[in-house]
Amino acid sequence: MKKSIFLLVLLFVFVLAFTACDKLHKHSWAEADCETPKTCSTCGKTEGEALGHTEEILPAKAATCTETGLTEGKKCSACGEILVAQEEIPASGHTEELVPGKANTCTESGLTAGKKCSVCDETLLAQEVIPAPGHNEEILSAKEATCTTNGLTEGKKCSACNEILVKQEVIPAAHKEEIIPGKAASCTEIGLTDGKKCSVCGETLLAQEEISSLGHKDGNNDFTCDACGADLCTDHVPADPIIENNVPATCQKPGSYDSVVKCSVCGDEISRESKIHEQLPHTEEVVPGKAATCTTTGLTEGKKCSVCGETLVAQEEIPVIAHTEEVVPGKAATCTTTGLTEGKKCSVCGETLVAQEEIPVIAHTEEAVPGKAATCTASGLKDGKKCSVCGETLLAQEVIPALGHQWGEGEKNLDVTTYRCDRCGVSKAESESLENNENIFTNKEFVGTPEALGQVLVAGWWAGGGYEVLTDGMMTEGEGRFSTLLNKTTAFMDGSLDLGEKYVLGTLRFYIYDTKEAITEVAKKESVGADILIQVYLDGQWYDIVNCANNADLCDHLVINEGLNNDYLEFDLSDIVAEKVRFYISASVSPNGITFQEIECNGALLVEHVHTEQILPAEAATCLTAGVTEGKVCSVCNEILVSQEVIPALGHDWSEGAVADGVTTYTCGNCGLEKMESDALEDVDNLFAGKKFKPTAEATASILSASWWNGSGYEGLTDGIKTADNAIGRFSTIMNLSGFMDSTIDFGKEVVLGSLKFYIYEVSAKTEAQIKSSIGKDMLIQVYSNGAWINVVICPDNEALYGHLVSVDGVNNDYLEFDLSGIVAEKLRFYISASSSSSGTTFQEVECNGKEFPSDEPVLIENVFTGKLFVPTEGDAAGNVYNVNTHGYDKLTDGITNQETKGRYSGKSAAGVLVEATLDLGGTYDLQEFTFYLYKTGLTGSFGSELIIQVLSPEGEWVTVVHCKTTEELQAHIVAKSDTDAGDRLVFDLGGVSATQIRFTMPTGTTTKYPSMHEITCSGYAK
Asked: Looking at beta carbons, which pairs linking 419-424 to residues 24 or more positions away fall under 8 Å?
């Protein structure tokens, strides 16, 4: 009993100890952290709750061209634990942008075109300085001054930029003075002073003046003039009468004369008697006429007296005639010189009728200088640019180094492994069992072309005379083997040698003929030629093996030895397979020509199997696809025996065009495709609207089940819906690479196609790789016209398809676009196989704009709002959209009228809120039935307390067409939901009013209900 009591007491003590820990010891508390509450480190008791993580944003970092970025992440700011890990965003890569170059001038340097990244501005291709070339001096000719016109000294200008380098100085006009000697006066004759005239033009500069006669002087009275010695006697002895003052008779009046008797001693006059000559008749003389010109009048023929000059028949004036117009040809301006417009002058007098005007220098006309691809043995050139007019280099071509052979994996035949260069096709072979010959050219003869043999020195001096002894092993001093003409740097040699069978080549050597012991290394280098091309022939084709473009390259192969005729050019052709070898080498930079003593090449005979020929059938080219010629392959080793050559796609061969009823129709002469052009055809936004694509049964089997996609397959591909909603997917192939889609749409008539678009279904931002994988592997598009299906688009692979991708901001806005402009079709079908990704091929919508032949009857458009956007009035109305489970105004015309769980537009839940929006119709329409589809059937208060509908008339005036002032008036327009209806709706008859825009105003009522609707539609006729 005592033991029992003791045990009870002991038990009580333990219970007390555990239930009264706080009283038995002092807690040592560890503070609460993110994951554990406040805890006693002694007894483990907890208090309160864990603090929980304190979320801290790890900011995102945008990727740049060269650096990766990071998505936004989260961590706990208290304990540092990562809550949302950041993911790496790949670097976007540079976006190349052209940095335009600048042409140099005579005095200023230019720049080549460069490239930079348009995003980060990093230089991708540095611009290079184009040095200024300096002025190009052109002499401006001097011009001598004349008596009346100024002259010019010689000058200079730049012929490129026309800058004056040496200015021409004016030489003033001036006469060249010449003295006109005077004449002294005598006793009986007058004299003249000195005068002056111009010795060039004869103009009188100083007129001569008369000096009166001096008269006789007889100072000593000896009847003799002291000056001239004349007799001056006074006792005159009459002499015989003489005639003085004789005035002959003319045809105008009688003449007269004096009969004078003078002293026979002194000559003085003794007597004078006037007498008459009878008047003479006129002597008629023709006065020639003068033809009129474009600057002077003319004269008719006249008559005058040749004696007296009296006019017998007066000349009449002939008026000035018109100028004879002659075209002065213009001169086109170039990129270096100015031009002239066409002018006109008179071909008779030379007068300028239409002055020529200077045409300024034009910009360079850029012309591509095609590059040259580098080959295995020869360097290439990048594309360049030059001016097609003046030839100036605008973008210098850069050298692309020779690529070198790119040997394939190799094919084994017997114990020989043959490799083929994937780039140029040349072959090489390797085998330890091949037996090398010392010289596989021995006893074989090089054959030169007649042109090359014409450059050979005569055989009388050289042993042999040409190629025939180049492989006999002789390299002596006294027997020259081959030489081109001396002192003729244009000479060349070529030679071809048939080996008879296939050989594996080794080292090829050209031994230099050298009869002089003392010959410099420079002379040796000059004697080997300017360049060399060595080729081998194999399986019907020649291949370049060595291509030394200049003497320096050749000299890299020169081996110089002691002794005569031991120097040689050496080329390593190890393992190259050949049936023939040929070379071309042009004359050296030295005038001594090219001289070789011997040509040798070691190698081994190649033993191969005999090919079993198999035909590779030809394929004809079409308008869109290339074809190939027939080829041949060995069915055993798969070696191509005859390569198939690509036949380029033909392209459409359009006829000249037949015109009927304002429509021009063109027909392709190759495939029969038709296209039309006409302004009379009516534009259609989407020719597919209201029609359904019909797939084949096989394609339908590749469609994802309807349980995941809203709709099944193709039936929703033309309803205009391109939302970001997961439940509105339209079409996707099965995600296993075997899926494909094909489908046909029947227009029921001929239409003219425009741009065809396939919209990609995309619920979130995708990478480029994801987009590529979602668009399909290939695409074929055909049209049915005139009883036949015709190919109009062929994209053979995913890359070709991706080239048609148009990226637009926003979800589901990216699309594939194909230009079918003008193509005539009655039906259209497409085939696209699943992408290279397991994501299959996914499209949201397919549409094609185009044209239709006009109909005599107007066509009622079911909904003129489709594809157009209501825009809320700025201010109160724009801020009154209720944002819960709605998308504002932008979904009011997308065709969804039966989604009660997907509200499209709703005003805020408050009285007096204004809902107001405007839609631009993009043209003029005669409007018919206007419908508001209500959100949730039966909510009669959800359409507001008042409604005003207005239209903008073609004349530019807003006209009210509906005004329901109360909720009761609005209720009168309700059409209730039936089994086939999408829901309750408000319907208004607009009676065909013409409009270019439409707007509505709907304020909320006094209840907590507010305007709420799915869709707004309006039927009408396009004008």
From this structure: 421/376, 423/375, 423/376, 424/375, 424/376, 424/377, 424/543, 424/544
- List phi, psi (to 5°) of 451: -65, -40
Q: What is the dihedral of CA 576, 581, 582, 585, to 10 degrees?
A: 50
pLDDT in tens, 841-858: 778 889 999 998 876 667
Q: What is the DSSP letter of 6?
A: H
61 vs 86: CA distance, rounded Å:
10
- In this predicted structure, which of 19-28, 75-84, 107-116, 755-764 has the lowest mean pLDDT? 19-28
SS3 for 576-643, per residue?
EEEEEEEEEEECCCCCCCCEEEEEEEEEEECCCCCCCEEEECCECCCCCCCEECCEEEECCCCCEEEC
pLDDT classification of 464: cutoffs 50, 70, 90: very low
789 Cβ contact partners less than 8 Å away, ≥ 6 residues apart: 782, 783, 829
The answer for residues whose C-beta is within 8 angstroms of residue 78's C-beta and 6 or more apart is: 33, 34, 51, 53, 54
User: By C-alpha distance, which of 385, 392, 339 is closest to 362?
Assistant: 339
For 558-580, write each residue's pLDDT tens digit. Answer: 888 877 777 889 999 988 999 99
Cβ-contact 1002, 938 below 8 angstroms: no
pLDDT at 829 over 90: yes
Closest CA to 78 of 94, 63, 56: 56
C-alpha to C-alpha distance for 338 and 362, rounded to whole angstroms: 8
Residue 334 CB coordination number (10 Å): 16
- pLDDT at residue 455 tops 60: yes
SS3 of the chain: helix, strand, coil, percent, to 5? 5, 40, 50
The per-residue pLDDT for 511 is 86
Taking 50 as the threshold, does the pLDDT of residue 266 lie above it? yes
Residue 658's CB is within 10 A of a number of other CB atoms, namely: 10
Structure tokens at 230: 């004349």
CB atoms within 10 A of CB 931: 20
Predicted TM-score (pTM) of this structure: 0.35
Place of tokens 């469609």: 703
pLDDT in the model for residue 5: 45
**Helix/strand number for the chain, H first, E second:** 9, 79
Identify the residue with better confidence: 513 or 514.
513
Give CA–CA dist 1011/528, Å, rounded: 97
Residue type, 818: F
Evaluate whether 668 touches 619 at the Cβ level (below 8 Å). no
The average pLDDT across 421-450 equals 81
Query: Tens digits of per-residue pLDDT, 273-312?
Result: 888 888 888 888 888 988 888 888 888 899 988 878 888 8
- How far lies 688's CA from each of 199, 816, 846, 1016, in Å? 98, 16, 8, 21
One-character DSSP codes across 906-924:
EB-SSTT-EEEEEEEEEEE
Indicate the pairing of strand 38-40 with strand 29-30: antiparallel
Rg (CA), the chain: 55
Burial bucket for residue 181 (CB in 10 Å: 0-12, 13-18, 19+)? exposed
Q: Which residues contact 967 (CB under 8 A, 6 or more apart)?
A: 940, 941, 943, 944, 945, 946, 1005
Instruction: Look up tokens 């208090």; give the residue.
Output: 47
| Separation CA 665–CA 552 (nearest Å) | 64
How far is C-alpha 400 from the geometric centre of its chain's CA atoms? 23
